[in-house]
Amino acid sequence: MKKYILGIDQGTTSTRAILFSKDKKVILKVQKEVKCFFPKEGYVEQDAIEIYLSVLNVINEIITRTNISIDEIEALGITNQRETTVIWDKTSGMPLYNVIVWQSNESLPYCEKWEKYKDLIHKKTGLILNPYFSASKIAYILDNIKDGHLKANNGELLFGTIDSWLIYKLTNGKVHATDITNASRTMLFNINTLTYDEELLDLFNIPKNILPQVYECNHYFGDAIINGKSIKITGVCGDQQSSLFGQLCFNKGSSKVTYGTGCFMLTNIGDIPIYSKNGLLTTIAWKINDSIKYAFEGSVFMGGAIIQWLRDELKLLNEAKESEDYANCVSDDLGVYIVPAFSGLGAPYWDNDCKGAIFGLTRGTTKAHLIRASLNSIAYQVKDIIDVMEKECRKNIKILKVDGGATNNNYLMKFQSDILNKTIILPECVETTALGAIFIAGLGSGYFKNLEEIKKLEVQDKIFKPTMDETTRNKLINNWNKAIKATRLYK
Ligand code: ADP
């Protein structure tokens, strides 16, 4: 009797597994850390074998702790850190270079070389030319392994993002495939034709034969072999898209924000791609049962990280969660604004050169005001992106679904709701990324018949409704805008 669906969330710092039962409950979550190496300033690498072993490890831990048999698992869903690049030998199945992680900038010189193609790249892929995406990482690895181009052209090498690597290893090298959301982050995939783009492959000198076959998210990818038994892989999706799905943002205009170290915002923009003039990415949200959805994506570099900075550098906090009490112990912001442009400002400003700033200090400013201003800065940055998303997709975002570590902060969530003048919903199961992969795998295996069935599973934990009056809101936003303007003047 098949009773369970297993979800794997392979993230940058850890691999998680969630066992989901057919009576629609999360049975168990387990997690295993994975290491990052920093061989030089700005370089971030990982070990592909360690990543694969961490996946086997969490699956085995789930099985041991719950005492279930592999035969009882109907389907496996995989979601993963996106863009992160692996190249391996087709014959031995062994990686030929360290994994280059999405955050790594070692392939920056390639992007500088490709600067003249940036408009073409945006039009074809929906992405902004950046070492973040896989294309320049592939070019870099091919140049840095012995006979890289020769072997690639001879069909001796395979490339994959983490999903492909895991599918390949779990199927004992039988399947070299990826899903369309991960493909859309390689900067090689044309989001209009839904195929790898020959012109870009030519410009970047990347041979097509190393690329994985692209399928829709709920395709039957193959059988994962675990301890000699098999589980069908029927769901694959990149992590941010998976969390959009796990948050049930199925309709045009529905949005989610993940408040982690940075904040990631995705809005479902429907079945036709829209191109942003303000630096938002256009990406494939998912393709399921032949139906495609696109999304706008924007990110804030310093989200929860500003709270880490208060804790670790300024020593104003022992733990991130104390920030809520401090923020609540003062009655207003006392005119203090922090613009956390520690590594420049992302969308919609795209100002790499500006630095962080604090405004409005007086003799009455206390530690609590600084902490409150830091939390507020997260909400203002998210608001700036939501404003652009609404304008560019010509749709009013009424409700915002949220997840991630900083959503534990009730002050932040209430302030976010006030400053946006929107309702915010926090789901009961905050593991929305793994949940997305589980739902997609369930659609692939036939356990879920359609999206409506999945929608019925929604359990909301907290709802934040705006209560701030318009005059106050406008005044605060106006002050924030002045702070941003002043920050950008100081260079
Ligand atoms: P990631 O997946 O990026 O590692 P998480 O979703 O685990 O991030 O969230 C961790 C981030 O959230 C940290 O930057 C931390 O400072 C912040 N954070 C966690 N709890 C709180 C809280 N109660 N209030 C404010 N920030 C918090």
**Main β-sheet, in a few words?**
7 strands, mixed
Uncertain runs with pLDDT below 50, 5 residues or more? none
Q: What percent of residues adopt helix (DSSP H or I)?
A: 25-40%
H/I helix tally: 16
Give me the Rg, rounded: 22 Å
Strand order of the largest sheet: 17-18-16-15-21-22-23
Characterize the overall form: globular
Structural class: alpha+beta
Give the overall average pLDDT. Answer: 94
Number of strands: 23
Bound molecules: adenosine-5'-diphosphate
Give the N-terminus to C-terminus distance in angstroms: 65 Å
Strand content: 15-25%
Task: Please give a quick description of this structure.
This protein has 491 residues and is of the alpha+beta class. The protein contains 16 helices and 23 strands. The strands form seven sheets. A seven-stranded mixed sheet has the order 17-18-16-15-21-22-23, with helices on both faces. A six-stranded mixed sheet has the order 3-2-1-5-14-13, sandwiched between helices. It has a two-stranded antiparallel sheet with strand order 4-7.
Write the layout of secondary structure elements.
Layout: E1 4-10, E2 14-21, E3 26-33, E4 45-46, H1 48-66, E5 73-80, E6 85-89, E7 99-100, H2 108-113, H3 118-125, H4 134-144, H5 148-153, E8 157-161, H6 162-170, E9 177-179, H7 180-183, E10 189-190, E11 195-196, H8 198-204, E12 213-215, E13 222-226, E14 229-238, H9 239-246, E15 255-259, E16 263-270, E17 281-288, E18 291-300, H10 305-312, H11 322-328, E19 337-339, E20 357-359, H12 367-393, E21 399-403, H13 410-420, E22 423-427, H14 432-445, H15 451-455, E23 460-464, H16 470-489
Helix pairs in contact: 1-6, 9-14, 11-12, 12-13
The structure holds adenosine-5'-diphosphate.
